[in-house]
Specification:
With 322 residues, this protein is an all-alpha fold. It has a single domain, classed as MetI-like fold (Orthogonal Bundle), CATH 1.10.3720.10.
Length: 322
């Protein structure tokens, strides 16, 4: 091996060692700088992270498993919060009519709401991105068909589409629809309600990107269309997709809570935040305000924090505002 080759390898290793790692590049990025400048965004991120951690470690933090009837006692029903005159330990936020600890029910209900929301966003994002890439890249009749379907769906509210899909699933499956199947139906209903935004956004970006030189070069060397779309075109459209996904996460959680409040979501044996609000609403005028107040506050705080993150991300990734 010649001396020049050895010197080149040593210099290359030295330059790679001196170059900052991905963590350092993240700290020095414009996105992280914008994040540090906004105290509201940092608080919203902290609150969102706290909710996810509470959902993940619900089984360790909860006083009881509200989904297990063996752990419930009717003698403990409708106990007021701990700081009131009639409060009892260990029920910090009181209990509901079935003797469920409200704090434990919120933790487990938060887990259900986040699982449905995240899975719904992942499903709608995957479907919308796939259809948007296909419509934008191939154009013609394929583009026209997909966009007309999207236009028709946009004429209906998302909650109406979710109710329709939910009703069809219940009529087809009937008594075979258990708690886990109901969770899957909610994910399907929410996913099919929100794919249009992804498809339209990705289609517009793809129509711009496919006319650039790197796409022509990829076509020239014989790369298949799926590889070009997924490996080369899709990464250049991720900015708007991340913004839509963040905002749609809040919308998906609200949609699930609305469906559950209307009685078309998760059952009372496996309640989400929306189901807890529906249950507590029946006892609001009887004086047991805590049954509905605390799940409602938890849902409002979660939605607000995610929306604040989505607003910041939209502004931070907008090149016109830099």
């Amino acid at each position: 091996m010649s001396e020049a080759v050895v010197r080149h390898k040593v210099e290359d290793r030295g330059s790679r060692a001196a170059s900052p790692g991905w963590f350092r590049r993240t700290l020095d990025s414009d996105l992280f700088y914008s994040f540090r400048r906004s105290k509201i965004t940092m608080i919203a991120a902290g609150v969102t992270l706290l909710f996810f951690l509470l959902a993940i470690f619900a089984s360790a933090l909860a006083v009881q498993n509200p989904f297990d009837p063996a752990q419930l006692q009717l003698m403990n029903s409708r106990i007021s919060p701990l700081w009131t005159a009639d409060g009892q330990s260990p029920f910090l936020l009181g209990t509901d009519e079935q003797g469920r600890d409200v704090f434990s029910a919120i933790l487990y209900g938060l887990r259900i709401s986040l699982v449905v929301g995240v899975l719904g966003v992942l499903f709608s994002g995957a479907l919308g991105i796939l259809l948007g890439l296909t419509a934008g890249y191939f154009g013609g009749a394929v583009d026209g068909l997909i966009m007309r379907v999207a236009d028709v769906q946009l004429s209906f509210p998302a909650i109406l589409i979710a109710l329709l899909i939910n009703g069809i699933a219940k009529s087809v499956l009937g008594n075979r629809l258990d708690e886990m199947s109901m969770l899957g139906v909610l994910v399907l209903a929410i996913g099919l309600s929100f794919w249009v935004q992804y498809a339209r956004t990705v289609r517009g970006s793809v129509m711009v990107e496919k006319n650039k030189d790197y796409v022509a070069a990829a076509q020239l060397i014989g790369l298949p269309a799926p590889v070009i779309m997924l490996r080369h075109v899709l990464p250049n459209t991720m900015g708007p997709i991340l913004v839509i996904a963040t905002i749609n996460l809040a919308l998906a959680i609200i949609t699930e809570a609305t469906l559950s409040f209307l009685g078309s979501g998760m059952p009372e044996t496996m309640p989400s935040l929306g189901t807890l609000i529906r249950i507590g609403n029946n006892y609001l005028f009887a004086g047991e305000w805590w049954i509905v107040a605390f799940p409602g506050l938890a849902l409002a705080a979660l939605i607000l924090s995610i929306n604040l993150l989505g607003d910041w991300l939209r502004d931070a990734l907008n090149p016109k505002l830099r």
